[in-house]
Specification:
The protein is mainly alpha-helical. The chain is built from 16 helices and no strands.
Length: 331
């Protein structure tokens, strides 16, 4: 019987991925239910099967192929972080077997983001570089000509961060300059959509010790960001936090402290008082306390940062926090 008749329909429903997809839809609304637990067990099973396929044996990819199953694995990688790398990798392998260029680019970006979360920048870098190439190729395939795309600017901005985290500052600057050049084709230089790119440029300058020029950019872009996003927007708060960090690095603690406290108040209201997104803010405040001789308060924030990030973070994230603490302590 074919998959269009009744027997074929039930055979289709019996496929593991289809069962998982149905459970996934249920699990979205009842994540703590027994059905959600069943989904987790099924994902683990699929993950194990997927490991076999990468060794050349017939696993789950032998049962289903195509874009839909690839997108399913992508969705699952977001739900189950303990299996996200292999799930995103499986999605990528599926789409390589005949999917459109745009979907291949999407899967490559998905896997690159997994590596970014794991602080595996050396693995993320070639994937983002490839994604830029594929974005351009996909547009040319569809339209018959090439042009600078906002999507490429977004990827280039992320790639700049990948370079920066590896200490490749020249490459980071080049990628960011390319991103800004593309965005300027769509927006004026004082537009809110370009401001985050310029903020990233200032952050890169801070890493290189060019604090004076970075401050000029922060102040200029904050005017645009305040007016566009509003003073209580999380991104506005974040950029105020960057400026506070710069002031703290310069020893301008009296200017830094009110800024970082304002940032912290907005972030606590937005994310909650114990969210790991607040780690960098706590560490900036700890830098201020340490610089003003309030060592006990600084240590409390060091301990809090390590505790919170240790509960959800990867080894790379924990190492970064430890490195930041050592820098504040002058070690």
């Amino acid at each position: 019987m074919s998959d269009t008749d009744e027997g074929g329909f039930w055979r289709y429903l019996a496929r593991p991925l289809v069962i998982a997809a149905i459970l996934f839809q249920v699990g979205c609304s009842t994540r703590m239910s027994s059905r959600s637990k069943n989904l987790e067990q099924l994902i683990i099973k699929i993950t194990n099967q997927s490991s076999d396929t990468r060794q050349g044996t017939l696993g789950i990819e032998g049962q289903v192929t195509g874009v839909n199953s690839s997108l399913f694995f992508q969705a699952m990688s977001s739900i189950y972080p303990s299996h996200e790398e292999i799930l995103a990798d499986t999605a990528l392998n599926l789409i390589r077997n005949g999917g459109p260029t745009s979907e291949l680019s999407s899967c490559i970006i998905e896997l690159a983001e997994v590596y970014m979360d794991q602080m595996k920048f050396e693995k993320a870098q070639p994937l983002y570089e490839k994604a830029i190439e594929l974005q351009n190729k996909a547009f040319e395939e569809e339209h018959g000509y090439l042009m600078d795309l906002p999507e490429v600017a977004i990827i280039s901005r992320t790639l700049s961060s990948v370079y920066k985290e590896q200490g490749k500052f020249d490459d980071a600057k080049s990628a960011l300059n390319r991103a800004v050049a593309i965005m300027r084709k769509y927006h004026t230089s004082d537009n809110q959509f370009i401001a985050p790119y310029k903020v990233d440029m200032a952050r890169l300058m801070v890493e290189q010790g060019n604090l004076k020029k970075a401050e000029t950019i922060y102040l200029r872009e904050l005017d645009i960001i305040d007016n566009s996003y509003g003073p209580n927007h999380p991104y506005t708060a974040r950029v105020h936090g960057f400026l506070a960090e710069l002031y703290a690095l310069q020893g301008r603690y009296s200017e830094a402290e009110p800024l970082i406290n304002e940032t912290l108040a907005i972030q606590e209201e937005t994310y909650g008082p114990e969210h790991h997104f607040l780690t960098s803010t706590w560490l900036t405040l700890a830098r201020i306390y340490h610089g003003t001789g309030k060592y006990e308060k600084a240590q409390e924030l060091f301990d809090k940062s390590l505790s919170v990030i240790g509960k959800i973070g990867t080894k790379g994230m924990i190492l970064k926090v430890e490195k930041d603490i050592a820098s504040i302590q002058g070690k």
